[in-house]
Structure formats: structure tokens, C-alpha cells
Amino acid sequence: MAVGDKLKVGVIGTGVLGRYHTKLYAVNPKVELVGVYDAFPKAAQDVAAECHTNAFDELDALVDRCDALTVAVPATMHYETVMPLLAKKKHVLVEKPIASKVEDARGMVKLADEQKVILAVGHVERFNPAMDFLEKNKHNTMFIEAHRLSKYPAPRPGLHRRGTEVSVVLDLMIHDIDLVLTMVGQEVERFDAVGMPILSKTDDIANVRLKFVNGAVANITASRISAGPMRKFRVFQKDSYISMDYATSTGFIVRKGHLGVGRKQINCDHTNALGDEIDNFVSAVIATRDTGVFTEPRVTGAQGLRALELADAICREIKSYNNSHELFHNF
Fold first, then answer.
1. Mean pLDDT score of the chain, rounded to an integer?
2. Which of 121, 237, 247, 326 has CA 20 to 30 A from 5's CA?
3. Residues 130 and 244 placed together within one structural domain of the fold
């Protein structure tokens, strides 16, 4: 790669998220979209035709022509897909969770560090304008309540329903785990968690209450069996209460002042969070290439690992509780 060249990028996995990544790379002026690959050739061909790019029959043929790649395959395949890319010194944006196993994620982060390449993780909510507001107002945060609810994923011929290969903790809740860890910025002292499988063989609904060493508390609920979607994040601070709706990027803040309590409506600018995530990754890779100084993306592999470590601990707590009470043995 030479200074000023467009970044040659490919996409591995052309499901729902892979298709979105491909469309956004196709319109990014900093990028030359080399092509896409999917284990199901027809899926790759359909996305390639839609985005006016190439569908590759062989993964290595795509990888060898790229400087950076998005990996949007099922979470259980992240490790086996990403490790060979890092070994070839390719920069990688991998969808969340970084991996399905903590030891795999640690190996990915270690190899990226050794190869001096960027490993970014797709925690897209970090790019939500609502989160931008919350991060700017995170001082004195004492309590957080997050709800992330969605309908059960649609069936896919020949495949499991999207996301159900892992617990809802790794599928949905991990977004809010990452946001809470970012907001509080402290170590978790202890937690209590419950969860259960309803329609799949992994937990479809879960709740965790986190207590941090500084006294802050977070209550997080995730479900993929709800009647309708909800993505809300509420923050109680020493002098205010902030309620944000991720889906609409709106909310309000109630704050104590000299003249009493005032309420102010919040209307964040609407942006394409995934587009911003992709542009952040591309910009970090180009800056690293052009300056010779390693530039970190907003969500690093280490931060993805941090969220996964806590999510994994929550999953183990849920499993231990259910086993001790002989629950859900039919799953």
C-alpha cells in the first residue's frame, strides 16, 4: 500500500450484516471494494451483483488481493476465520462478539498485536449519536438500566436462526455490556445473572445486575423473543437522570439546578452508525499505513475481549444456576 492509495477491502460472509458492510464499503470514497466471499456461493453472488463487485469462489483469492477485511460469519466461526487473516498481516473488522470463546479472543488479540495490524470489533452502538451524548455526560454515573429486546430471528433454510448459535448474552446483551463498561470505567466487583432458553438451545432471555468497585450499579436485560423491539438506556447520575432511545436517537435529561429541576429534550443528529464504524476502521488503517504510527480504531480487539470476558462470566453464572436447580435439562 502506498500513501494516498485507496484501501483494498473485502467482506467475508454475506448474510444480513455482511450485506450491509458490503453496501457501505461500496460507497466509501476511501475504499476500493475488491469483492465478497461466502460459504454459500449464491449468497455471495447475489450481494456482489447488488453492490457491483466481485464474488470469489475461493477465500484465499479474495484475501490475497485485500489490505483489510470485514468478517461477518457466525460467532462460532470468528476464530477460525480471523486467525489466518491476521497471520497474513491483514487488518480485520470482525463483527461482535469478537469470538464465541474467551481463549479464542485472547489468541486473536495477541496475534494482532504481534503482527502489528488493526483488529477492530463491531460494537456498532459505540457509534450511535445517543452514545456520543452519554459519553460526554458520563461523570458521576451511579446507576444504569438497559433494555435490548427483539423479535425471534426469522428462519434461514439450511442454517440456524441468526444469532442463536450463542446465548442472547453474546448475541444482544454484549452491546450493552460494552456500553456500560465504557460509561462506568471501573472494575466489576460482583454480579447476579439469570437466563433461560425458550425457543432455541441457548439462552433467549437474560438479565444481569452488575456492581462496580466505585459503587455504581447496572441492570441489563436482553431478549430475542419479545413482541417488539426496544433499545433503551437510562442513566442516573448524582445531579441528573438521562433517558436515551438508541432506535430513535432521542431522549431527555432531567437535571437539578439552582432554580429547581429542569427537563430538556435531547435530539441527536441521525447518522448511519454502521457507516461511521466502517469509516472509523478504514481511517485507522489508512492513518497507520500513511504515518507509520499505529492508530487504534474506536473499538479495539482488547475492548472486544473485555466485553466478551464479562459476557462469558455471565453465561457461566446462568448455566451454574440453572444446573444447580435442575432447570432446562431438556435443552
1. 92
2. 121
3. yes
